[in-house]
Amino acid sequence: MDMSKIPSPDARAVTGVIVVDLQGDFTTLKQGSLAVDGTDSTYVKTVEQVTLRLRAKGFTLFATQDWHPRDHVSFFTSHPGKHPFETVEIDGLSQTLWPPHCVADSENAGILMDPSFFSMVVKKGTCKDYDSYSGFQDQGGTSTELERLLRAGKITRLIVYGLATDYCVKATALDAAKRGFEVFVVKDLCRGVSVDTTRAALEEMAQHGINIITMADL
């Protein structure tokens, strides 16, 4: 690990933090419909503590939030005869079918931190016709407001962590790197859906120039 690459307090003015999808439906704490292993109260509290420490150092905080309509394309219930975790092709795109989750205005769609901690909570997956793993755009190519907010704040470096390593964290980090941001993923502040896909996600991110760090590096 090249420790010189890790953002220092002197870099706080150009460094943003993105907490990815820390929502009830993705945690065992809230018995979510898509709960990821290892997301109990200890995990959520740790994420909150580290995030507040970074805020106290002057870093700008953002969060992403899955915010789906009830008939979202990613829900198996929107496809009669289909079952959770099946894969289908829709308009040339591969789509994993998930249990309904993070339905707009439902309790478990809520961020498990005080939203006032963040400069902005960026909602994604709001269009019923496209899934959206990345905080930057959905699979139909429609952008969220995240990049505009980062550019407006003259942010060039990003610290990224949250849920899940092998899906929304990976997609958000890769999209950030494609847009020219220097990206640091804090792997022990993330949790993944499976061991194999998490390992592959970390390797893929590293291959694309993303810095994989730990809490101890912050």
TrEMBL record:
> What is the superkingdom listed in this entry's lineage?
Bacteria
Q: Which UniProt keywords apply?
A: Hydrolase, Metal-binding, Pyridine nucleotide biosynthesis
Q: Which residues form the Isochorismatase-like domain?
A: 16-217
Listed GO molecular functions? metal ion binding; nicotinamidase activity
One GO term under biological process is:
pyridine nucleotide biosynthetic process
Give the E.C. number(s).
3.5.1.19
The pathway entry for this protein reads as: Cofactor biosynthesis; nicotinate biosynthesis; nicotinate from nicotinamide: step 1/1
What Pfam families would the database entry show? Isochorismatase (PF00857)
Keyword check for Hydrolase, yes or no: yes
Q: Which InterPro entries match?
A: Isochorismatase-like_dom, Isochorismatase-like_sf, Isochorismatase_Nicotinamidase
Q: What family does the Swiss-Prot or TrEMBL record give for this protein?
A: Belongs to the isochorismatase family.
* Listed name of the protein: nicotinamidase
| Taxonomic classification | Bacteria, Pseudomonadati, Thermodesulfobacteriota, Desulfobacteria, Desulfobacterales
Query: What's the encoding gene here?
Result: pncA
